[in-house]
Design goal:
By secondary structure, this protein is an alpha/beta fold. The protein has 14 helices and 15 strands. The strands form four sheets. Strands 3-8-7-6-4-5 form a six-stranded mixed beta sheet. Helix 6 links the parallel strand 7 and strand 8. Helix 1 runs antiparallel to helix 7 and helix 5 runs parallel beside helix 6.
Length: 394
């Protein structure tokens, strides 16, 4: 099969739509279940490249949760702490610790649960039963992986009344040297972005502090690979092998930084004991819990904790999570990574990153204000790396 006719394109009025191999070769995929659409495939193919590259760079299982052609998060398969399991809603999943690919997806899906709602999933490794049990109960459009165990396929095939999109991809497939697209009937052509992201991009340290631990190198690499498949402008916060905040598609990089930082802060506040001990009513839908937690840790606490509101969600009224408590908690964070798909033109992005616990920064360099940005990093004894590459993705 070298082409696949789709239901429609990006929108229902775009009635004629297909994917196909221009050279007449076979498509490197099999549709095992469902009927993926145009946007599903855009998500699937970008997401697959992301996890494949992370797996090649780190040697660890990787997963990503994609939404509208950008990752909400990406992660490697490190085991989750008990607190993280609870924050990611996977503390009841048996066998989680023994499945690296399940741990990777639990992290990726659990980071930004509001944005991951209705995601498309990519897994670097064969989808096992444990991973399928996590996917089965989440609102999701589909999954792409190099294979599925018999039990995993059985579980996922029943999702969405039997219509869940399950794609198997040939892991040996490589894109050709040139890629093209049309805009307004005009064809654009360029070489495929095959830049290899590895430790060689971390050698140009420009700050006074030059200490770069191995685990931070891994986080920096994960952040750069995630940015490669995120709509620019884009900024990514990474911690413990997991993208914890991604700001993408903004015209201003400082707005990207603010967006990513706010998501990183939300992730950290979800790990706070006050949040983890919220007395939710039994059988409260998962999506409702997501919204309530987001309101509780951000600026909308009254929406869920005020008298007349809390009774809808909790068995008793939660203690207030004050602004002072949140600020103190966030201010104690350290060791975070901040990555940009190009250069930071001003030091304010560094200042904002520091407020969310950043100690390590990687960016392209090359701005007329590089000195200002380096000075901002030196002010906080950060390590800053100019990788001298741009990772724009459109």
């Amino acid at each position: 099969m070298n082409q696949l006719v789709l239901k429609y394109g990006c929108n229902p009025n775009q009635e004629s739509a297909r994917i196909y191999m221009a050279d007449g070769s076979e498509l490197p995929i099999k549709i095992l279940n469902g009927r993926p659409g145009y946007i599903n495939f855009l998500d699937a193919f970008n997401a697959w490249q992301l996890v494949k590259e992370i797996k090649e760079a780190t040697g660890m299982a990787a997963a990503t949760s994609f939404k509208h052609v950008s990752p909400t998060s990406a992660a490697i398969g490190r085991p989750l702490s008990d607190k993280m399991k609870k924050a990611c809603f996977v503390d009841d999943i048996e066998g989680l610790d023994s499945s690296p690919i399940a741990c990777a997806y639990a992290r990726a899906r659990g980071t930004d649960r509001l944005c991951s709602f209705g995601d498309f999933i990519a897994l670097s490794d064969v989808c096992d039963e444990t991973t399928a049990r996590i996917i089965k109960r989440e609102v999701s459009d589909g999954v792409i992986a190099p294979g599925y165990t018999e039990k995993a396929l059985e579980l996922l095939s029943k999702k969405k009344k039997g219509g869940y999109n399950i794609i198997e991809i040939d892991p040996s497939y490589e894109a050709g040297e040139l890629e093209s697209r049309q805009v307004f009937g005009i064809t654009f052509e360029q070489t495929h972005n095959d830049i290899r992201i590895d430790e060689s991009l971390l050698e140009n340290i420009v700050t006074e502090n030059r200490e770069l631990p191995d685990n931070i190198k891994e986080d920096l690499i994960i952040g750069m690979i995630a940015l490669k498949y995120t709509q620019s402008n884009s900024v990514c916060f990474v911690e413990d092998g997991q993208c914890i905040g991604i700001g993408a598609g903004q015209q201003s990089r400082i707005h990207c930084t603010r967006l990513a930082a706010s998501k990183a802060d939300t992730w950290h506040l979800r790990l706070h004991d006050k949040t983890l001990s919220l007395p939710f009513k039994e059988k409260l839908p998962r999506a409702v819990r997501d919204n309530v937690i987001d309101a509780y840790v951000n600026e909308y606490e009254e929406d869920v904790c005020a008298d007349g509101n809390w009774q809808k969600y909790f068995t008793q009224r939660p203690e207030p999570f004050t602004a002072e408590e949140k600020k103190e908690y966030i201010s104690g964070l350290r060791g975070g990574v901040l990555a940009s798909d190009a250069f930071f033109p001003f030091g304010d992005s560094i200042e904002r990153g520091r407020m969310s616990g950043v100690d390590y920064v990687v960016e392209a360099g090359g701005s007329v204000r590089d000195d200002e940005v380096i000075a901002a990093a030196d002010k906080y004894n950060m390590v800053m790396i100019f990788n001298k590459v741009r990772l724009f993705h459109h």
